[in-house]
Design a protein that fits this description.
The protein has 461 residues and is an all-alpha fold. The protein has one domain: MFS general substrate transporter like domains (Growth Hormone, Chain: A, Up-down Bundle). The chain is 77% helix and 1% strand. It is built from 18 helices and two strands. Strands 1-2 form a two-stranded antiparallel sheet. Strand 1 and strand 2 form a beta hairpin. Helix 2 runs antiparallel to helix 5. It is a multi-pass membrane protein. Its main location: membrane. GO terms for molecular function: transmembrane transporter activity. It is found in: Cell membrane. One of its GO terms (cellular component) is plasma membrane.
């Protein structure tokens, strides 16, 4: 029997469907920073700046045996970037939970998303100023940009629940991810040409800095499309907690209520724990792959840019392919298959010989196929397990895990390198995250969890 509430929800989906097209564009906007800066260029660049600070005038190919002094702690220059990623994601995990509570009390979510995206884009653009031995500025800007990105994605992901019917979310989420990979790939192609002609721009370092500036500007300018397109979209009409509590007091009360509610949604909680593990592995592979390729396998930054350019366009097709598979088999089975593929990718990465170009690019094809699909479908799966009118608070937990628990994988990666002076054991250790995540995800009863959250069960789960 169709209730008045069901009719109202169906009307909301029909009304808000027009926001899907502008919504896609935020994936396009922020993926330039994620791809060009966070994934490809900044890790090796920050490492080179830190190495110059620790070992001035070090000959090319020589090992730096001097540690940096970071707040009184000795830090290997080669481990600075993984540690920075770990710290920024840990701090972000704490802050994003508050962002979600505030976002659900915001009547115009696109405007809040614009604020966070603007802060991130400014920090990303300012990375142009990192040069010489100024690794401290690089660490600060990376932390600000990463946390701001996570905050904007809390709002962005929560909007998915309001603009797409449960039967359409795998498709809508996959299209967003695919467009993101396409946008990131286009800018990466431009950056590749720049680095290939670095001498004309004043050297490799200058070309890298200009590329990072372009990524920040791309993020900020293209964010205008979803922000203006969804400017009038309304959020939750009623606050979850009493208005008398005020913004700060109401936020804390809402957080308390959110965690109490989450504990009652056992399947949602189990999914989050599973996601915490396998996403930790994904984020660490993505974040440290450029460093692995340059420092361990001996490839140049130009070669790694070529690889990631290829991966971006393969991932574009991979995200759409996984979306199509999910329509037939369901997102749950498709993601489990994707996790198995990730394990094979990690094993293959461990055995790639130094300077083996063909093996490196074969590995890149495997990463591209599985990367976008597992992330896009994880987002749409979780959206089914989120109670209505609590989207942002619950997606803040999702983002806290996506960008906040990957600190463990990044720190493990850095620690293993510091202990073994090799990135191969570090990359192999990541298998445990995928195995644990896959085992826990296999235990999630999606139909039951969707019903517990009070949502409509899609035709195919």
């Amino acid at each position: 029997m169709t209730t008045q509430s069901d009719l109202a929800i169906a009307e909301d989906y029909a009304t808000n469907a027009r926001y899907q097209r502008p919504w896609y564009w935020y994936d396009w906007a922020n993926s330039a920073f994620v791809t060009t800066t966070a994934t490809v260029l900044f890790g090796p660049y920050l490492t080179s700046v830190a190495t110059e600070a620790a070992c001035p005038g070090l000959a090319e190919g020589a090992d730096c045996t001097t540690d940096l002094n970071v707040l009184g702690l000795p830090i290997d220059p080669g481990s600075l970037h993984p540690y920075t990623v770990g710290l920024s994601t840990f701090v972000g995990a704490l802050l994003l939970i508050f962002v979600g509570a505030i976002a659900d009390r915001t009547k115009r979510p696109a405007r809040l998303m614009a604020l966070f995206a603007g802060i991130g884009a400014v920090a990303a653009s300012a990375m142009f100023l990192v040069e010489g031995t100024n690794w401290g500025l690089g660490v600060l800007l990376l932390m600000v940009a990463s946390i701001a990105l996570g905050a904007s994605l809390v709002v962005y992901d929560a909007i998915l629940v309001r603009i797409a019917h449960p039967d359409d979310r795998d498709k809508v989420s996959s299209r967003g991810w695919a467009l993101g990979y396409l946008g990131g790939g286009i800018l990466l192609a431009v950056n590749f040409l720049m680095l290939s002609n670095a001498d004309a721009l004043g050297g490799t370092g200058q070309a890298v800095r200009i590329s990072m500036l372009m990524a920040g500007l791309w993020w900020g300018l293209f964010t205008l499309i979803p922000v203006l397109g969804m400017w009038q979209m309304r959020g939750v009409e009623r606050p979850v907690v009493a208005a008398r509590a005020g913004v700060l007091g109401g936020t804390f009360r809402q957080l308390k209520d959110t965690f109490r509610h989450l504990l009652g949604l056992r399947q949602t909680l189990l999914f989050l724990v599973a996601y915490m593990f396998f996403n930790d592995g994904i984020q660490t592979v993505i974040g440290q792959s450029s460093l692995y390729g340059t420092a361990e396998l001996g490839f140049s930054e130009t070669t790694m840019l070529t690889l990631f350019l290829m991966v971006q366009f393969v991932a574009f097709g991979g995200a759409l392919l996984f979306g199509q598979v999910a329509r037939r088999l369901g997102a749950w089975r498709t993601v489990l298959g994707g996790i198995g593929m990730w394990v094979l990718v990690i094993i293959a990465a461990y055995f790639v010989p130094e300077k083996a170009l063909a093996a490196l690019f074969a590995l890149g094809v495997g990463i591209g196929l599985v990367m976008g699909g597992t992330q896009a479908l994880s987002r749409s799966m979780y959206s089914q397990l989120v109670p209505r009118d609590r989207e942002a608070e619950f997606f803040s937990l999702y983002q806290a895990l996506e960008r906040g628990t990957s600190w463990f994988g990044a720190v493990i990666f850095g620690v293993v390198h510091q202990l073994t002076d090799s990135y191969r054991p570090a990359i192999l250790a990541l298998i445990v995250f995928f195995v644990l995540g896959g085992v826990l995800l296999a235990k999630v009863d999606m139909p039951r969890g969707i019903r517990e959250a009070g949502n409509e069960v899609p035709a195919v789960v």
